[in-house]
Amino acid sequence: MPKSALVFHFFLLLFFTVFALAANATVTAPITQQFKEAPQFYNSPDCPVIVDEDEESDDGEGSILCSDQAVHVAMTLDTAYIRGSMAAILSVLQHSSCPQNIAFHFVASATANASLLRTTISSSFPYLKFQVYSFDDSSVSRLISASIRSALDCPLNYARSYLANLLPLCVRRVVYLDSDLVLVDDIAKLASTPLGDNSVLAAPEYCNANFTSYFTLTFWSNPSLSLTFANRKACYFNTGVMVIDLDRWRQGDYTSKIEEWMELQKRIRIYELGSLPPFLLVFAGNIVPVDHRWNQHGLGGDNFRGLCRDLHPGPVSLLHWSGKGKPWARFDANRPCPLDALWAPYDLLQTPFALDS
Fold first, then answer.
1. Nearest to residue 85, comparing CAs of 40, 115, 120, 134?
2. What is the C-alpha R_g of the chain?
């Protein structure tokens, strides 16, 4: 073999070796950040008393993790967004009138170090009632099509479609929250949103948004597909904040309905944005609208540049940095946007210059 060919094969082998190591490092990346312990928050006198899980049986039945009196919150958990998750948890607790009655259900990739994630949460919130559920990435990886931003293609981004399968049957209603947001109001108000007789989920709707732009020309030009929303007043809604009736979701097998659209997307490109369009295809026009104050979204800018944005007009109960720009990344780069200052008080990152209280 000529010397030039040997050199080529050497560098080719080196490239794939480095690529494999980098991919493995992404899966098993440690949590290099250190976080402060958050204050403990207590229930107000009129909160219902829920028996602590430690006093119950090992299976957790009858505990706060299964109680209908608890507010159940579901979030995904990973090393990339852990700083945002910690801030979100703190904001939920700080503004709750019954913080001891909140049960957190965290979904983590099966390839993640679940023990490390649990330890990180417990260290900052030693009193928190929570469970970590393992999400098998392979169950959805085969269905994911490339979108306009690589972060949207992460399998964990699709875990919200599988909550009814992952959480125990005793959890009948849950508030799903993204990790790039903070609440400035009592989450119990959002959790108690009436869902009527038939609705599966509730979320703020944005009917002024250009709904057609969420789907491709291929979708709208297809005689059959274009009739998908024919009998619905379909509006855009952001899936980063949702109240979900898990009983109705299970009964309607909505995970399968979402997967069917994802399978079609693999054959015919009918949308460009990650996990959002399948939700719109299944639910748009059939959800309970929630006041816009519960999702002041888009503070992370668009999906390409992540430029600074202002708040939408009106009151605010939840600030959501959806889009490319995340407040913790902007702070680290010394290029925060003005509204990122509203996220900063919930940041539990332990800096080298922080003084012990």
1. 120
2. 22
- Residue 336: DSSP 8-state: -
- Could you say which DSSP state residue 296 is in? B
Condensed to tens digits (0 to 9), the pLDDT of residues 257-291 reads 999 999 999 999 999 878 899 999 999 999 999 99
| pLDDT tens-digit readout, 61-103 | 448 999 999 999 999 999 999 999 999 999 999 999 999 999 9
| Helical (H) or strand (E) element with 22 | helix 3-27
CA nearest 40: which of 85, 99, 91?
Answer: 99
Which token pair is 302? 């668009």
CA proximity to 328, closest of 145, 120, 179, 157: 179
Q: Among candidates 37, 24, 230, 237, which has minimal Cα distance to 111?
A: 24
Element (H, E) at 9: helix 3-27
Distance CA 248, CA 163 (A): 12
**What does pTM read for this prediction?**
0.87
